[in-house]
Structure formats: C-alpha cells, structure tokens
Amino acid sequence: MSLTILTNVAGLQAQNSLSSNQTSLNTTLQALSTGKRINSGADDPAGLAIANGLQANVTALTQSVRNATDGIGMLQVADGALSQITTLLNSAVSLATESATGTVSDSQRGALQAQFASIQAEISNIGQNTTYNGQAIFSSGNALAVYMSDSSSQGTTTVTVNLGTVNSSNLGTASGSTVPVSIASNDLSHATDAQAALTNINSAIAGIALLRGNLGASSNQLSAASNVMSSQITNLTNAENNIMAADMGTETASLSQESILQQTGIAALQQSNQMQQSVLKLLQ
User: Fold this and answer.
1) Which residues contact 19 (CB under 8 A, 6 or more apart)?
2) Burial of 63 (0-12, 13-18, 19+ CB in 10 A)
3) What is the CA radius of gyration of the chain?
4) Which of 146, 210, 237, 241 could form a disulfide with 159 if both were Cys (CB 3.0 to 4.6 A apart)?
5) Per-position DSSP letters for 204-259, written without gaps between them
C-alpha cells in the first residue's frame, strides 16, 4: 500500500460512517424523547399518511359521539315534556268522567270546565315553550337530524327524528289514523259533551304514548350508534398507536449500539489522521 498525502481516504470513510451514525443516533434520541416512531414524514411516509387518516377518523367519531349524546339529551327533554302532558291528560280524564255523571250540577260542571280549559292552555304552553339549546322542540315542521361520521363518505349516518307540533289541537294520532287528535274544541259544560271529550282525551293519551315510543326508539338507536362509535374510537386509536408509537425496547437497544459506533467512529477518524502524519517520519 502506497503512502499518499493528497487524500485521506480512510478519514473520509470514517467521516461518512460517523455522519450516518450521528443521523441514526439523532433519530433514536428523538424517538425516545417523544415516544413516537414517526416524528416526520422522512421517518415513514406511508405510515404517517395512514396514521393521519386514522387520527381524522378518531376526531370525527369523537365529535359524532357528542352529537349523539346531545341528540339523546334533546329527546329526553322532549319525552319529559310529553310525560307532563300525559299527566295533564290523565287529570282531564278525571274531570271529564266527573262531569259526565248525573250527580253533578251545571254550576259544578262550569268549575270542571274552567279546570279543563286551564289544562288545554297548559298543554299548548308546554308544546310552545319546551326548548333545547334555545330551539323550540315542538315547533311546526321541526325535526331533529343527528349527523354522525368517521370523516369518510362511506362512514356517514344521519338519524332523523320527526318531533312534530304539539298543542291542544295536535296531540299525536290515534291508531290507524293520520288525523291529529285535538281536544281544543272539547268542553265539559254538559254531560254529553263531557262524554265526547272523554273519548278524545283517551285518544290523545294513546297518541302521546305513540309519540313517546317513537322518541324512545330513536333515543335507543342513538345510544347504540354511540356505543359502536366508542368501540371504533378505541380500535382506531390502538391502530394509530401501533403505527406511530416507538418500541422503547428496540430504541433503547439502538441507542446503545449507535453510541458505541459513534465512539468507535471518532476513534477511527483519529487513527486515520495519525496515519497521514506518519509520512513526516520519511522526511526526517
């Protein structure tokens, strides 16, 4: 092997190896400090793209669970209002039954009618004033649309619940009918009128029960959807973690190896520099 001083080939090789080792060491130290295997696109471009997609899925699903929870809350408020209407209708049943009997005088029926009129008014007030987040629940044509998505077009679902209008003229529909039940025009001033009112009131109770049943079914649907999305969030988060998270055991082993290689690389660079200085001994 000839001795030359123009190029320190061994030194260049040692520098290249040391530089490559330093890059690997920096990557390992970053992985250990962040706990992430992928800290930039250069670490794993495909893995980063997949992980970011999974993050978008998890974010959308998390908000969708909140949407479903809010929807359930609104339905619970609506059901509570309808429950109170049912209580009022049951009171009206008692009044109508009392007014229909022959042992009650006309003046007493007038008092019963006054109570019945207050029930009619209160039912309309409940239908008009029941709100959720500032929105009237039973306003004309109102429908609750709960949007749920995993951020993809294939994973999008909208649950629509028709709440309808509720007042003394619209208390649901009787079985087999599409005409809303109304007690607005009923009165208890006469026994025969009270008997007719009793039939309507019973139909109204059935109509409100049917509406509450529909709201309950929709609430159960939203609860089931929320449970499914919560399971998806768990599984997708785990999948993202498998891609992004650093294997601490592997990274620790790499740190030891790269630290040793760095030290040996520096020693090799020092040795290559000393080899060139040996040429000076030929000139002595």
Assistant:
1) none
2) middle
3) 39
4) 146
5) HHHHHHHHHHHHHHHHHHHHHHHHHHHHHHHHHHHHHHHHHB--HHHHHHHHHHHH
Cβ pair 18, 269 in contact under 8 A: yes
The answer to whether 96 and 190 have CB atoms below 8 angstroms apart is no
Q: What is the pLDDT along the chain (284 residues), one digit of tens a residue?
A: 566 666 666 666 767 776 777 777 777 777 777 777 777 777 788 988 999 999 999 999 999 999 999 999 999 999 999 999 999 999 999 999 999 998 989 899 999 999 999 999 999 999 999 999 888 898 766 788 999 999 988 889 999 998 888 999 998 886 666 788 899 999 999 999 999 999 999 999 999 999 999 999 999 999 999 999 999 999 999 998 888 877 677 767 777 777 777 777 676 667 766 666 666 666 66
Contact yes or no for 251/36 (Cβ under 8 A): no
Q: How many residues does the chain have?
A: 284
> What residue type is assigned to position 280 of the chain?
L
Helix (H) or strand (E) holding 157: strand 156-162
Q: Quote the CA–CA distance of 269 and 12 in Å, as a whole number.
A: 8
Q: CA-CA distance, 52 to 36, in Å (whole number)?
A: 13
Secondary structure of residue 4 in the 3-state scheme: coil
- DSSP 8-state secondary structure symbol assigned to residue 167: B
Tokens describing residue 198: 């009793």
